[in-house]
Design brief:
Elements: E1 4-5, H1 16-21, E2 28-37, E3 44-50, E4 60-61, E5 64-66, H2 75-87, E6 91-107, E7 111-124, E8 128-131, E9 134-137, E10 152-159, H3 160-168, H4 184-201
Parallel strand pairs: 1-6, 2-7
Antiparallel strand pairs: 2-3, 2-5, 3-4, 3-10, 6-7, 8-9
Protein name: Nudix hydrolase domain-containing protein
InterPro entries: NUDIX_hydrolase-like_dom_sf, NUDIX_hydrolase_dom
């Protein structure tokens, strides 16, 4: 599990047990990844559609899931693992924090628990190739996404305009999970903003 981290995110490299212990108000922790392709004139984001047999059937989201205290050494290790499990892609660099979402999850067995989810913009190895000593983007639709079929049934590389339309109108292409379990749609748009800001500085 080899990846680099933007310096301003170094705090998230502390041991996961220490990170969790500092937040006793939460019983569960999750992570989310926003992956972009830069091969086209405008960035595209990887969205996964939840399986019809899973919770929130048919909704679109980025890769992500729960932290595993027994095996994940850091929160960012959780992020890298979940990204690989849900998309088949290997995180190479963690660029920026997009959002921290908090909500209550109701379980039949032991009532409600408080969850905190940390979502990041990341780069993946499969989206870039070395050419003449420089990193060049792989064509978007050649990036080898591999889904976990029990969780997601298809994927798309979405344009910002299509996400905006889906937020503003029921006729849009994508339906997102309810805000009660994290603000997926606003977070996706914020991820686009962060990527655009980064590109403008380069």
């Amino acid at each position: 599990m080899t990846y680099t981290v933007a310096p301003h995110l170094n705090y998230f490299t502390i041991p996961l047990t220490e990170f969790v212990a500092a937040r006793p108000e939460f019983e569960g922790f999750g992570v989310g990844a926003y992956i972009f392709s830069h091969a086209d004139p405008t960035p595209r984001i990887l969205l996964l559609q939840r399986a019809l047999t899973d919770s929130m059937p048919g909704c679109w989201e980025g890769p992500g899931g729960a932290c595993e205290l027994e095996t994940d050494k850091t929160l960012l290790d959780s992020l890298v693992r979940e990204t690989l499990e849900e998309s088949g892609l290997h995180v190479s660099h963690i660029i920026d924090l997009v959002a921290v979402d908090c909500w209550e999850h109701h379980r039949r067995s032991d009532g409600k628990i408080r969850i905190a989810k940390y979502s990041f913009v990341v780069e993946v190895q499969e989206a870039l190739k070395s050419s003449a000593g420089r990193q060049q983007p792989i064509p978007t639709f050649q990036i080898p996404v591999q889904l976990e079929p029990l969780e997601h049934q298809q994927f798309e590389w979405a344009l910002k305009e299509d996400v905006v339309l889906s937020v503003q109108s029921a006729s849009g292409r994508y339906r997102f999970p309810l805000p009660s379990i994290g603000h997926q749609a606003p977070n996706i748009l914020r991820a686009f903003e962060l990527v655009e800001e980064r590109e403008n500085k380069q």
